[in-house]
Structure formats: structure tokens, C-alpha cells
Design brief:
The structure holds two protein chains of two kinds.
Chain A: H1 2-34, H2 49-89, H3 93-107, H4 110-121, H5 125-128, H6 131-156, H7 159-168, H8 173-184, H9 186-202, H10 205-210, H11 218-228, H12 231-261
Chain B: E1 12-20, E2 26-35, E3 40-44, H1 51-59, E4 69-72, E5 75-76, H2 82-85, E6 87-90, H3 102-112, H4 117-130, H5 146-159, E7 164-168, H6 176-193, E8 197-201, H7 204-210, E9 213-218, E10 221-226, H8 228-233, H9 238-243, E11 248-251, H10 253-259, E12 263-266, E13 271-274, E14 281-289, E15 294-300, E16 305-310, E17 321-326
Helix pairs in contact in B: 3-4, 3-5, 4-5
Classes of the chains: A mainly alpha, B alpha+beta.
């Protein structure tokens, strides 16, 4: 018994140490954003001025980031879920190859993907200057994560048999997909969605090359403020970033936990 | 529309149906098979013999090789997609939809057919009454026991008033005791429904209890088709004889010295054990007490093994020598290939 208590304490200590190591710098940064003068220290007093300044200067980047993440999510879901189903339905060399191909943008540095996009589409003026260009980049980068997560969910649930059962009951392929496959794969879809939103909101590599002064997203604005503003403003930006991101993440996480736990809540299929 | 009245039953006719996988493996040799209207046919065979492939061909989930044809009554369904075939299928793992409750599962096929809510509700309750699950209509399917799932799957399959009913190992996923009970229930239900039914199983007792006729399959071929009694008494091939119950075979000089024939085949219960010194003798290797009888494993002096069943009070023990007498044997009727 003492053994296991010792183990627990040791585990807890290590976990706390790692957490402190990870969160410490973020907390310091947040403190900096609330301090009147970081170089003088906390004794200079606390203020919300920097936060207000950030909001005035960069509010648009925050909303844009949300918009881009949402659009990316919708597109990756619309493409990714059927793609994952097709790959599950027809396993074989071709689908393995397709999946590898799909994963390529993850392995290739974001800058290279962005460059490729600019080379191919950069001359299309309206696209180059629109937020859509950034959304395309984000979709390329996040789609593999969506497909992988949904596929993992589909493989676990033996969906091919459920699909066959629905077919013998008279349901068309499309009907089966929406009635049976999507609800049964939803924990994978939620996991995928969570990953896509997180990745999209924090994406910098691709976006940094793809953005124009009018299409800055939150992380690009953050870099901008680090480069050109006082340290306190940049730090206040981090605080705003966290305040915007955390509720969303917590919300999505708890939704994901709920769907996974309750296995079979009925989704729309009523008798 | 009540199920107490028999469904209009259709025959199933398979002609020249074969199945070759894309890699060239033959799952089914070309075969002809007829299931009479209202009959329950059991497809029996070891795993990998092609019985499930055959069932999947009947429900349209696998296509037959070119040249094969499948008809329901006079209707050629060879190229008809499963969703348009009007078959009720109970899958091996039941394949209940996890996102729907019991009633929604049973009603799904009716919903697809555009049956209005009220009729659907009535029909679902009727089906649930038939399988005695009306109290669980609102229950989530992952909260059901194995036997209840099996009955939901059955209710779901027959709710759409299928032209034929196909059951793939419907009782395999259940434990032995429950399987015994459900076998009896299922046999009664199938009789009540009067629907043409094909049931796949690897369990010979199940096949014999449920099937009006049994088709024994082996390595993609149909070995024999007939009533359970015919298969048991007059097996058309050694495979059938072995698969339907245990068949012991003895041959050689020891046998011919005592019986004047080259070989003997018999069922384990067709042999009597007695004190040695009276005819052909054998040594007892093992003794298994099974309640209603004792199973002895024996060997002849030349090493040929065989099995005998004896009354539960049989006194012999392993290592002892006994005389064997056959009450019935197929000396002349050594099963020949058909």
C-alpha cells in the first residue's frame, strides 16, 4: 500500500513539475501583459491598458481567426468524413496510397506548402488577397488530421457491417451515410474537429506567407506585435489569445468527452 | 397486416452460382440450389466452406460470377442491389444501429420505405410483441443482453415483410444455455411466420433443429442436401457422415478376422461394451462421464482409435480391456462419394 502511495506522490510531483515548466512561461507572459512597466516589474502596478490597446489594434485578427477556423472545419468535415468512409469501405493498396498522399502536407514544412500555393494561385488576384486563400492553406494542412481521426473512429465501430445491414433494410448509399455512418462515427468526427480547430487557430507557418496586411490572423498579428510593439502589448495579446481560445477549447473538449462517453445518444433518427 | 397470418412465401432458386475473389481464390464452386417456398433451409459446414458467401449472394451483398442466376419465385434478382431485393437479414453480430434505440432499429426499414409514423409505431410494437421485447422499446441497444439483441435483429429483419429471411449464424454469439433455449424459440417463430428462410450455421444440432432440410457444404461445394434424418442415416459422402454426428471407421485384418469384412463404420452409440473373451477386443484409453452417458475412447490392438458411448453406470476404467459388439453398423454401406 505504501508502495502505491509513494508511486502516486512521485507521479503527482512529476506531473506538477512538467505542468509548471509548460505553463510557467505563459503565466509570466500574461503577467507581463498586465503590468504597467515590465522592466520595472509588478511594483510598477497593474493595468488593463495594454489589453485595451491590443483589442483596438487587433480585434479584427481575432474574429478572422475564428472565421478561418470555422470555415476550415466545415470544409474539412464535408470533404474529410466522406473521404474517410470511402477509404474504410474500399481498403487496399490504392486507398493506402491515397491516405499517404493526403498526409503529405503534414510532413512538408508549412512554408513549402504556402509557397507552392502562391506559385500556383498567387496570380489570381481576388483569391490571393482574400481570406479564402488562407482557408485553402489551412484545409490542406488540417484535412489529414480530420481524415485520420474519423477513419480511426470508423474502423473501431465495424461500420461496414452496419452499412450492409442498412442496405438490406432498403436504405440507399447516401441515406446510410447520413443515418448510420455519420452518427456512429461521431466521436471520431468530434476528435477530428477539435484537432482541426486547434491547429487552424494556432497555425502560423503557412499563414505567415499567405496573409496580406488585410488578411492577418491571430498568430500572425501576435508575431507582428512582438516584432513592432512594446513587450507588454505583445504579452497582452497572448492573454487575449488565451482568453479567446480557452473557452472554445474547453467547450469542445467537454462536448467530445460527452459524445464519447454516452456512446449512443440518439441523433436525429426518430421512429 | 398481422404476422399471425402466414406471409406469402417465395421459393429461392440458385442456378450455376459461383464466386471467385479478385485474387483468383474460388470461394464457391458453381452450384445449383433450390429452397422451397416457406421452407427453412440450413446451410451447414465448417468455417470457410463458403456458406456465408452463399448467403451474402442471396441477399445481394456479393455478386455471383458471370453465368449464375438467383431467382425469388419467378423474379430474377441476380443483378438487383441489396437495398431493392426485399430480403430480411440477421447478421452474425446482429449489426444493430448503435445510434438508435430498440424501436428505432426495428422501425428503420419502414422509415426508409416512407411508412407514416403511426403505422410504423403500430408495426414496430407488433414486431416487438412477436419477439417478446415490447417492454424494451425505448432501450438503447448497448443496454441489451445478447439474447435480446438477437431478437431485436430478428424483429428488424421481419418488420419490412421481406420476401425471404436470411440468418447468418444467428445464435453463435450467445452462450450455450441461451443458445439451446433460443433455438427452440426460433424454430417455433420461423414455423409461425411461414417465410422462406435460409440459415447459416456451423453447428449441426442447430442445423438439424431449425432446418426443414439441411445443405451440407465443404470447401465451396454442396456435399448433400436433404432432411436431417436422411443426412444422418444415409450420408452421401464420408465428409457428411463425419460432419453430421461422429462416425467411427475401423478397417483391416483385425476387423475382417472377426466380422469377415474389410471395413466397418458405425456411430458411437451403436457399439456395446462387454467383458473380454467374447469377440473383437479393445483397450480403453479414456473415460469421460457426461451425465446422461459415458464416453469411452478406445483403441484396437492394431492401434485404430474409435469412440463408444455407454450407459452412465458402465463400470469400465481406462487401462481395462473390453469386448466390443456392434448393434448396428454399415459394413456393406460404407459411405461412398455422391
Amino acid at each position: 500500500m505504501t508502495h502505491s502511495r509513494l508511486d502516486t506522490r512521485l507521479g503527482l510531483t512529476i506531473t506538477l513539475a512538467v505542468t509548471a515548466f509548460l505553463i510557467g512561461p505563459v503565466l509570466l507572459s500574461v503577467t507581463a501583459g498586465l503590468t504597467k512597466n515590465y522592466f520595472v516589474g509588478l511594483s510598477s502596478g497593474l493595468t488593463l491598458d495594454w489589453v485595451v490597446q491590443v483589442w483596438d489594434l487587433y480585434a479584427d485578427t481575432i474574429w478572422r481567426s475564428y472565421g478561418v477556423a470555422l470555415a476550415t472545419l466545415v470544409i474539412t468535415a464535408v470533404i474529410g468524413v466522406p473521404a474517410a468512409w470511402v477509404l474504410t469501405l474500399f481498403p487496399g493498396r490504392l486507398s493506402r496510397l491515397l491516405e499517404e498522399l493526403l498526409t503529405l502536407p503534414v510532413a512538408v514544412p508549412g512554408l513549402a506548402t504556402a509557397l507552392a500555393l502562391i506559385v500556383s494561385w498567387g496570380s489570381v488576384g481576388w483569391l490571393r488577397s482574400s481570406v479564402l486563400f488562407i482557408v485553402i492553406g489551412h484545409v490542406l494542412f488540417t484535412l489529414p488530421f480530420m481524415v485520420r481521426a474519423v477513419r480511426a473512429g470508423m474502423q473501431g465501430a465495424d461500420l461496414v457491417v452496419l452499412d450492409e445491414a442498412a442496405a438490406t433494410l432498403g436504405a440507399s448509399r447516401r441515406r446510410r451515410f447520413f443515418d448510420i455512418i455519420v452518427p456512429a462515427a461521431r466521436s471520431g468526427i468530434v476528435t477530428g474537429a477539435l484537432t482541426v480547430v486547434t491547429l487552424s487557430i494556432g497555425e502560423f507557418n503557412l499563414t505567415w506567407l499567405l496573409h496580406t496586411p488585410l488578411t492577418k490572423t491571430l498568430p500572425v498579428g501576435l508575431a507582428d506585435s512582438y516584432a513592432s510593439m512594446r513587450l507588454e502589448v505583445a504579452s497582452a495579446y497572448t492573454l487575449v489569445f488565451l482568453l479567446m481560445l480557452l473557452p472554445l477549447m474547453v467547450g469542445l473538449q467537454s462536448f467530445a468527452a460527452r459524445t464519447t462517453r454516452s456512446g449512443s445518444i440518439s441523433l436525429g433518427a426518430s421512429t | 397486416m398481422t404476422l399471425a397470418s402466414p406471409i406469402q412465401a417465395l421459393s429461392i432458386t440458385l442456378a450455376n452460382c459461383a464466386k471467385t475473389w479478385p485474387d483468383g481464390t474460388r470461394a464457391l464452386e458453381p452450384l445449383d440450389l433450390g429452397v422451397r417456398a416457406g421452407e427453412t433451409l440450413a446451410l451447414l459446414g465448417p468455417s470457410g466452406c463458403g456458406k456465408t458467401t452463399l448467403l451474402r449472394m442471396i441477399c445481394g451483398l456479393e455478386e455471383t460470377d458471370a453465368g449464375g442466376s438467383i431467382r425469388f419465385g419467378n423474379d430474377d434478382v441476380t443483378r438487383v442491389a441489396p437495398e431493392a431485393r426485399g430480403v430480411g437479414v440477421v447478421f452474425q453480430g446482429y449489426a444493430l444501429f448503435p445510434n438508435m434505440n430498440v424501436a428505432q432499429n426495428v422501425g428503420y426499414g419502414l422509415k426508409i420505405r416512407g411508412v407514416d409514423v403511426e403505422t410504423r409505431r403500430k408495426r414496430v410494437m407488433e414486431m416487438l410483441e412477436l419477439v417478446e421485447l415490447e417492454a424494451l422499446a425505448e432501450r438503447r441497444v448497448d443496454r441489451l443482453s445478447g439474447g435480446q439483441r438477437q431478437r431485436v435483429a430478428l424483429a428488424r429483419a421481419i418488420a419490412i415483410e421481406p420476401r425471404v429471411l436470411l440468418l447468418d449464424e444467428p445464435l453463435t454469439a450467445l452462450d450455450a444455455r441461451l443458445r439451446q433455449q433460443l433455438r427452440v424459440d426460433l424454430a417455433a417463430l420461423l414455423r409461425k411466420l411461414g417465410i422462406t428462410c435460409v440459415i447459416v450455421t456451423h453447428d449441426q444440432e442447430e442445423a438439424m433443429m431449425l432446418g426443414d432440410r439441411v445443405a451440407v457444404m465443404s470447401a465451396g461445394r454442396l456435399e448433400q442436401i436433404g432432411q436431417p434424418e436422411t443426412l444422418y442415416r444415409e450420408p452421401a459422402s464420408p465428409f457428411v457422415a463425419d460432419f453430421i454426428g461422429t462416425l467411427c471407421r475401423l478397417q483391416g485384418s483385425v476387423v475382417s478376422a472377426h466380422h469377415g469384412v474389410e471395413s466397418l463404420s458405425f456411430r458411437p452409440y451403436e457399439i456395446r461394451l462387454g467383458p473380454p473373451g467374447n469377440g473383437l477386443e479393445a483397450n480403453i484409453v479414456a473415460r469421460f462421464y457426461l451425465g446422461s452417458h459415458i464416453r469411452f475412447e478406445l483403441v484396437l490392438d492394431d492401434g485404430q482409435p474409435f469412440t463408444a458411448l455407454a450407459e452412465p453406470d458402465a463400470p469400465w476404467q481406462p487401462g481395462e480391456r473390453v469386448a466390443i459388439n456392434l448393434t448396428q453398423s454399415r459394413t456393406a454401406k460404407e459411405p461412398a462419394p455422391c
